[in-house]
Specification:
Blueprint lengths: L7 H27 L3 E2 L5 E2 L12 E3 L5 E4 L4 H9 L4 E9 L11 E10 L3 H19 L4 E3 L2 E3 L6 E4 H8 L9 H11 L9 E7 L8 E2 L2 E12 L2 E8 L4 H19 L7 H7 L5 E7 H9 L13
Parallel strand pairs: 1-5, 9-10
Antiparallel strand pairs: 2-4, 3-4, 5-6, 6-14, 7-8, 10-12, 11-12, 12-13, 13-14
Length: 310
């Protein structure tokens, strides 16, 4: 059995990772401030924690009999701030997802999430690459590493459409895929991307992008991307959907699928939908900071980079 994190021996083993973590957090905050972003602090208790079908949230019963949730992402709250007039905002703090444990998962984790009003999702793709380089420099790393793979974040990132990834790594007959079929195919693709350079995987099917707007050149795909390093997903971003009518339909579909699969769903956040009518065109992205720290420091388990792991 692993000794508690507070024992001097274990803390000494983890100290280099934690020192690097502190340097990365400081460097990331400095980068955002230099770019003219404002750091925001959304409430962690949310009426509805998101639109993810496969994510579970911690429930927090209220004295009035209602239920709130610890947020799985500050996305809805931050989009409301965009509707209020904020233009460049970022969040660096805790989020919670029940049941997510393993070498790269923790139920309580650190999310880095940011939004740019009136800017394209290609711009936040560029942000992701630059943030990765900021983290590597702060850790004194020239490469990112996970298991047997390595990635040089300082060379030009590869850009690969989902359609192109299927053609290259998971050839198939034409036709729509079910969610399960799509997930299975992406599992085959992920080990091949993010090495030896970062990979930006973009233009996901609409069915896999509940909060992203449709691409202008192809309405069957959405302005959604994910960034990979060493076969590991680090970031998930969108050109944001701001049509409240279409967003309502997508949320209802996602929650129906969640109910079908898991026997529970989250309420629709009507306040969020009302705010969308006032939200400017925007792009945003969420990045798992603990994972980035792991790859920049060579840590082998997420508990190595958490200050007080469970």
């Amino acid at each position: 059995m692993t000794s508690p994190f507070w024992t001097r021996e274990r803390h000494q083993d983890r100290a280099p990772f934690l020192k690097a973590r502190a340097a990365i957090v400081r460097a990331v905050r400095d980068w955002f401030h230099d770019q003219g972003f404002t750091e925001v602090e959304p409430q962690a208790l949310a009426f509805s924690p998101g639109a993810e079908v496969h994510v579970d949230a911690f429930e927090v019963p209220q004295k009035n009999g209602q239920v709130r949730h610890l947020h799985t992402s500050p996305e809805f709250a931050m989009k409301k701030l965009l509707a209020a007039g904020e233009e460049r905002i970022f969040f660096l703090g805790k989020c919670w997802r029940a049941g997510e444990t393993g070498p790269m998962h923790a139920e309580e984790f650190t999310m880095l999430e940011w939004y740019r009003a009136d800017e394209s999702y290609e711009r936040v793709m560029e942000d992701c690459v630059e943030i990765t380089r900021v983290a590597a420099r702060a850790a004194g790393a020239s490469t990112l590493r996970w298991r047997e793979k390595s990635c040089d974040p300082f060379v030009e990132a590869e850009r690969l459409s989902v359609r192109g990834a299927f053609a290259k790594f998971a050839p198939r007959k034409e036709g729509a895929l079910s969610h399960d079929q799509f997930s299975a195919a992406i599992t085959k693709i992920e080990p091949h991307i993010g090495a030896p350079a970062l990979t930006l995987l973009y233009e996901y099917p609409i069915s896999e992008a509940a909060l992203a707007r449709r691409c202008a050149h192809d309405a069957t795909v959405a302005e959604r991307f994910e960034m990979y390093a060493c076969g590991v997903e680090l970031a998930n971003g969108f050109g944001e959907l701001t049509d409240p009518v279409e967003q309502r339909v997508r949320l209802i579909e996602a929650m129906a699928e969640k109910e079908k699969r898991y026997g529970k769903s989250w309420p629709i956040d009507e306040d969020f939908l009302a705010a969308l009518a006032h939200m400017p065109p925007a792009s945003g992205v969420a990045l798992g900071l603990d994972r980035l720290i792991m790859l920049a420091t060579g840590a082998r388990h997420i508990q190595d980079v958490l200050w007080t792991p469970p």
